[in-house]
Amino acid sequence: MTWGSTSFNHEDSVDPELYFTAYTSFFHKVAKVKDEPIESEKRELTVGEVQQKVKEYNAQINSNLYMVDNKDGSYTGFIKVHFQLVRPISLPPPRSHSLTQEEDQQGRRMTRRTSFYLPKDAAKHLHISSETRVREVIEALLNKFTVVDNPAKFALFERTEKQSQVYMRKVSDDERPLYLRLRAGPDETVLSLVLKENETGDVNWDAFSFPELCNFMRILQREEEEHVRQIVKRYALAREMMKRAMARITTPG
């Protein structure tokens, strides 16, 4: 696997759902992200179909990130993975050169990890083969940034847009990202690959250290408080608009 440069694209986050029974009368409805399956073709491509698909793919791109097909039907190419991580990743502590040999032998090296937030919507190009699986891609991405977190804490998603709706599908560990890229073509509105935290229901919380779990609890507390503030603000705004409307109504008598 080889790497490309990191790029950054800042986008406004989608507002949470408006918790008000008549919000359609007061607020603009926003596009929602739906976790729904994306239809994908199950049948494997023949060697001839792969060659044709690779040719069509290369004709559509505006860079030198071409796919290359081999006589046996395998192929290599680039995928672009977007990072959408809301929690910090763990990096190993810097190695200390001041430790004595005795301390080293006694295993007194510091085990504290450094937490680091990746920039929003960072992206990385990765050169892989048609046989590279999702789990290998995740491990390679973490190794690139020297992340020491368990790869099981992360998952790869495919993102697509249809009629102003954004759909996300979790890609299973044994799927092949380059195959998905070839089938969809280079247009990222048709399909893009996103690395996110694993879904809560699938996370093995026992894999986290005690300090990490404490940090997550603090983050969840802040997220909850912010969410409550947003809801209270919307209700207050709705009440104020109602009061103004009532004041404009001419009362009888």
UniProtKB/TrEMBL annotation:
Tell me which UniProt keywords the record has, alphabetically: Cytoplasm, Cytoskeleton, Metal-binding, Microtubule, Phosphoprotein, Zinc, Zinc-finger
What Gene3D superfamilies does the database record attribute to this sequence?
1.20.5.110, Phosphatidylinositol 3-kinase Catalytic Subunit, Chain A, domain 1
- Which locations, inside or outside the cell, does it occupy? Cytoplasm, Cytoskeleton
Q: Cytoplasm: present as a keyword of the record? A: yes
Task: Give residue ranges for domain Ras-associating.
Answer: 114-200
Taxonomic superkingdom:
Eukaryota
Keyword Metal-binding part of the UniProt annotation: yes
Coiled-coil positions: none
Domain (SARAH) ranges: 202-249
Q: Which residues does the annotated region (Disordered) include?
A: 92-111
Q: Which GO terms describe its cellular component?
A: microtubule; nucleus
Recall the GO molecular function terms of this protein's record.
zinc ion binding
Write one Pfam family the protein is assigned to: Nore1-SARAH
InterPro entries found in the cross-reference section: RA_dom (IPR000159), RASSF1-6 (IPR033614), SARAH_dom (IPR011524), Ubiquitin-like_domsf (IPR029071)
The UniProt entry, under PROSITE patterns, shows: RA, SARAH
Its BP terms in the Gene Ontology are: Ras protein signal transduction
Name used for this protein in its record: Ras association domain-containing protein 1 isoform X2
Organism, as annotated? Parambassis ranga
Query: What is the phylogenetic placement of the source species in the record?
Result: Eukaryota, Metazoa, Chordata, Craniata, Vertebrata
